[in-house]
Amino acid sequence: MNGSVVAAIAVTFFEADLVSSTQFFLLMAGARLGTSGMIVLIGGLEFLQEREDSVTESVSLASSRSS
Q: Which of 3, 37, 45, 63 is at a distance of 20 to 30 A from 11, taking alpha carbons?
């Protein structure tokens, strides 16, 4: 699921008193950090395959490479 969908579901569950405030925090943190973790994981794998010059370039969101 998309992080925004998970965040919306977390808010709905919290407002309906189906989750505690701790569970709500963990749901929101997971929704926001999940995508970042995937970017770092894929960038790390790309770095290990030596497609990029540095770890910084491999795990960055935007690239300013010269062609």
A: 37
DSSP single-letter state for residue 44: H
User: What number of CA atoms fall less than 13 Å from residue 38's CA on the CB side?
Assistant: 8
Q: Which residue has the tokens 């749901």?
A: 27
CB atoms within 10 A of CB 14: 17
Question: How confident is the model over 33-60, as pLDDT tens digits?
Answer: 777 777 777 777 777 777 656 767 666 6
Report pTM.
0.51
Q: Which amino acid is at 63?
A: S
